[in-house]
Amino acid sequence: MKQKSHHLFSNLSRRQMLKMTAGSVGALAASSMLPGMAHAAGGDISFWGSGTLDIGDKWQRAADDASLTISFTDNGNDPGPVVARLVAGNANAVYDVSGLQGGAEKELAAQGAIAPWDTSKIANWDKVWQWAKDIPFLYHEGKQYGLPGVVNADSIIYRKDKLGVVDSYGVIFDPKLKGRVAMEDAWINSAIFAAMYLKESENAPINEPGNLTEDELGLVMEFLIKHKRDGQFRTFWSGWEQGVQLVANEEVDAMTGWEPIVYEGRKRGLDVEYAAPVEGYEGWGNNLLLHRGAVERGLGDAAHEFANWIYDGYYGAHLTQMRGYVVPSDNNIPYAAANPDDIDPAAVENTVNHVRNKFNGKIYWQNTRPDNFQLYEEWWQKLRNS
Q: How far apart are alpha carbons 260 and 266 in whole angstroms?
């Protein structure tokens, strides 16, 4: 009995820390609804992911389906600070599972910040698309440290009513649009977009845009710094909310960014489109990472149940309709077809096929930890200061 009381105290302390560090009123509300100590110990998961992975009040369905109470907190989508907080900060004490852009698994595993998944505990693993299982970032020393949670391929958000049809990243660097374009304040996206443009449209000597050599990186970053100093960019935006506001407030006519921003812009009555660039898409996976702290707290099995629920169809179907992202699971379309009162089956199927088709074309993979990632960080700071 004494041991159980100690476990409950540790769990509640963690929830209080979550409230203090993330300002998450929703997390506090979720924890206050726990019916008892056993549920708190085994079925409450703090999910720290990119803001576009959030499904709002629909997380309640996880409680109905799998007796899981999910508290979601936006991690800002920048892998650098996420990795730092998992390795040397308090994230392992506060959160249980991360949703993070692929590439950091090797570093986090080597640092002991994350634990390997056991896919035999994930009943829906056989429903996950094979090519998503084969993404190399997911593995370290033969162990599965990442699960392919969400996939998509990114490009350019643009105002069709002002620009017509856009099919090149060149629009971002067009002097006629000076001050009316933006890029993300994160090299994991902006450096690769610039590298793709320079390689494919300017014949720059670049081999792999997602893993630039020192000389290639210097070429790309000098290109971006010059355009910044010339006043080309309205801003370098950071985070989901600011990205949406740039479009919603009509501050830009074109910006590199995430496809869900197009969906939000359309909801607000704007004629916005997502480009299919001649240079190709930036492919990415937002992967599920199991925190070492979750295993130490006895939440390893609950985390595997959470991963299984992500692949079960409900989450994937709703995320597809909300964001235009796809959980690489064969369960999404059947769930929608069986639940037309809950979700539009045609919309889900169309989006799943849309994303599949992107990956049938030219793709350069995003890499959050390229060989020279520390040099990327240094260059990006130079750009910020320029």
A: 10
| Domain ranges in the chain with CATH number 3.40.190.10 | 2-145+285-310, 152-280+362-385
The pTM of the full predicted model, rounded to 2 decimals, is: 0.78
What homologous superfamily is domain 152-280+362-385 in, according to CATH? Periplasmic binding protein-like II (3.40.190.10)
- Distance, in Å, from the CA atom of 285 to the CA atom of 49, rounded to the nearest integer, reads 13
Which amino acid is located at 319 in the chain? L
Q: Tell me the C-alpha distance between 322 and 318, whole Å.
A: 6
Nearest C-alpha neighbor of 369 from the set 153, 107, 193: 107
CATH code given to domain 2-145+285-310: 3.40.190.10
Please tell me what DSSP assigns to residue 276: -
Measured at the CA of 263, the angle between CA 239 and CA 177, to 5 degrees, comes to: 70
**Residues near 31 by beta carbon (within 8 Å), at least 6 away in sequence:** 12, 15, 40, 44, 69, 71
Reported as a single tens digit per residue, the pLDDT across 33-47 is 333 222 333 489 999
- What's the one-letter identity of residue 45? I
Q: Which DSSP helix (H) or strand (E) runs through 10?
A: helix 2-22
Each as own residue / partner, the long-range contacts of residues 19-24 (CB below 8 Å, 24 or more positions apart, any chain) are: 21/90, 21/94, 22/73, 22/94, 24/71, 24/73
Q: Could you read off the pLDDT of 205-222 as tens digits, one per residue? A: 999 999 999 999 999 999
Residue type at position 146: G
326 DSSP 8-state letter = B
| Cβ partners under 8 Å of residue 25, min gap 6 | 19
Tell me the residue type at 125. Answer: W
Q: Specify the DSSP class assigned to residue 106.
A: H
Which helix (H) or strand (E) element contains residue 223? helix 214-229
Low-confidence ranges of the chain (pLDDT < 50): 1-42
| Type and span of the H or E element at 40 | helix 37-43
Q: What's the rounded Cα separation, in Å, for the pair 304 and 300?
A: 6
Rg (Cα) of the chain, in Å, rounded?
Answer: 21
Phi, psi of 100 (to 5 degrees): -135, 145
> Element (H or E) spanning 354, and its range?
helix 345-358
